[in-house]
Amino acid sequence: MFEIALQTHESCDDLLTEARPGLASNRIHQGDCRTFLKHIKDKAIDLVVTDPPYFLDGLDNGWRKGGKEAPRATGTVGGLPVGMKFDPAQGKALQQFMSGIAGELIRCMKPGAFALVFSQPRLSHRMAIALEDQGFEIRDLCVWHYTKRTQFKAFSQNHFIERMDLPDWKKRQIIAEMEGLKTPQLRGQHESIILAQKPRQGTFVENWQRWKTGLMNADASLDGSRPSNVMQVEKADLAERGVAAEHLTPKPLRLLSHLIELFSSEGQTVLDPFLGSGSTAVAAQSLKRDWIGIEINPTYVALAEKRLADAMI
Ligand SMILES: C[S@@+](CC[C@H](N)C(=O)[O-])C[C@H]1O[C@@H](n2cnc3c(N)ncnc32)[C@H](O)[C@@H]1O
């Protein structure tokens, strides 16, 4: 665990504690971020951009025949049938999972530094509470908006009506009455990004003078206008994703680059404890930021390494 998987260019500072000496930045660290984050020094990180697992699946596998599966040691998630997906326990488990991580993040971030944390919209309140309870100030709830058509997942109840213990004519009658009615699942066209900030030391000016954090670069723009909390960037299609398509949920580089430009400066260090296919690292590298990536799945580590190597050519 936690072998250094890649070094793209020279790291500047040693950001790891004496318990785990060694260079940390511009490397992917393979392992569980809940353990690795503890080795990052206090007040070492300038920006966090991360996209944790969404916890919509796999938190309770008790529905499976034969009873519950052993709890997953990694924090990764599996699959649930549609009917189980609105279990409120999912949100509570996400909050609990993120709470310990948020505590480590705020410790290792500089005063005034920002954390941009992606979240599925319907669980974003739990994510925000996890961050706020650990001392972050929730400054905004940004929206990543994409117009590309996504799958429409709402379904009719006909299948269940057919299975009801009723005469056939009655089933036909109910089906006719409920024509056009579907489960309340709107087509997804956005994801939430929580903008959280570690409290500043003193005024904006005092904090900036000491830490070079706490203010945004108002010239960063997606479309030529002033930066907004609605960020419209299309999802890349499979061809555009290249090797990143081997990961289920790669985020668009354009969006990550915008977030990094808005909330950090050249030479600063960007941390992503859920690196996935390496998108944050690729964007940070191209913008001349140092970065630290943590990813639990060795297959994704290898994929991220390949993307970073390709991006340097
Ligand atoms: C939503 S994906 C991130 C996708 C990434 N933003 C990208 O563009 O490729 C979340 C990632 O977190 C990883 N992960 C889950 N639990 C983890 C943990 N405890 N420590 C480190 N990584 C973890 C998963 O393997 C997955 O690749």
Please characterize this protein's 3D structure:
The chain has helices spanning 33-36, 88-108, 124-133, 158-162, 168-177, 204-211, 238-241, 253-263, 279-286, 298-312, and strands spanning 27-30, 45-50, 109-119, 137-145, 190-197, 230-232, 269-272, 290-295. With 313 residues, the protein is α/β, with parallel strands linked by helices. Residues 2-12 and 58-84 have low confidence and may be disordered. Helix 8 (253-263) crosses helix 9 (279-286) and helix 9 (279-286) runs parallel beside helix 10 (298-312). 31% of the residues lie in helices and 16% in strands. It has an eight-stranded mixed beta sheet with strand order 1-8-7-2-3-5-4-6, sandwiched between helices. S-adenosylmethionine binds next to helix 1 and strand 8.
Layout of secondary structure:
Layout: E1 27-30, H1 33-36, E2 45-50, H2 88-108, E3 109-119, H3 124-133, E4 137-145, H4 158-162, H5 168-177, E5 190-197, H6 204-211, E6 230-232, H7 238-241, H8 253-263, E7 269-272, H9 279-286, E8 290-295, H10 298-312
Q: How many beta-strand elements?
A: 8
Number of helices: 10
- The portion of residues forming beta strands comes to 15-25%
| Beginning-to-end CA distance, first to last residue | 29 Å
Helix content: 25-40%
What compounds sit in this structure?
A: S-adenosylmethionine
Regions with pLDDT < 50 over 5+ consecutive residues? 2-12, 58-84
Main beta sheet strand tally, sense and closure: 8 strands, mixed
CATH class of the largest domain: Alpha Beta
The CATH homologous superfamily of the largest domain is called: Vaccinia Virus protein VP39
Radius of gyration: 22 Å
Overall, the morphology is: elongated
Structural class: alpha/beta
Strand order in space, largest sheet: 1-8-7-2-3-5-4-6
Mean pLDDT value: 86
Order of helices and strands: EHEHEHEHHEHEHHEHEH
Oligomeric nature of the chains: single chain
Number of domains: 2
Which fold name corresponds to the CATH topology of the largest domain? Rossmann fold
Instruction: Please give the CATH architecture of the largest domain.
Output: 3-Layer(aba) Sandwich
Family: Belongs to the N(4)/N(6)-methyltransferase family.
Catalytic activity: a 2'-deoxyadenosine in DNA + S-adenosyl-L-methionine = an N(6)-methyl-2'-deoxyadenosine in DNA + S-adenosyl-L-homocysteine + H(+)
Pfam family, one: N6_N4_Mtase
Protein name: Methyltransferase
